[in-house]
Design goal:
The chain is mainly α and 101 residues long. The protein is 78% helix and 0% strand.
């Protein structure tokens, strides 16, 4: 597959993720949108590694680090969302004001 098509796909995925973060107010949707953005970055790492890296696996190694960071972010984010839901019975980011003084 040519690099141009991969870049178009990753740009579309990243834009969908940015739209989900900026336009949605549900905390779970925002976390899923961040995951979509991180997956777009992973695809870019792997695509550019195939073009530039040759035999070295630097792009795949970076993609594995991003996957590990995304898993940790998702676990912590879902724990925070569950604790907020327990206290206020909502996951809407507009209605949550627990971190304010």
């Amino acid at each position: 597959m040519p690099l141009n098509w991969v870049l178009v796909l990753t740009t579309f995925l990243f834009c969908v993720g940015v739209y989900g973060v900026l336009a949605r107010r549900n905390a779970v949707i925002v976390l899923m949108s961040i995951e979509i953005m991180l997956n777009a970055v992973n695809l870019n790492f792997i695509a550019f590694n195939g073009v530039v890296g040759g035999e070295r696996l630097i792009g795949q190694v970076f993609a594995l680090f991003v996957i590990a960071i995304a898993a940790a972010e998702l676990g912590i984010g879902l724990a925070i969302v569950l604790l907020i839901y327990r206290n206020s019975f909502t996951v809407s980011l507009d209605e949550v004001n627990l971190l304010r003084w």
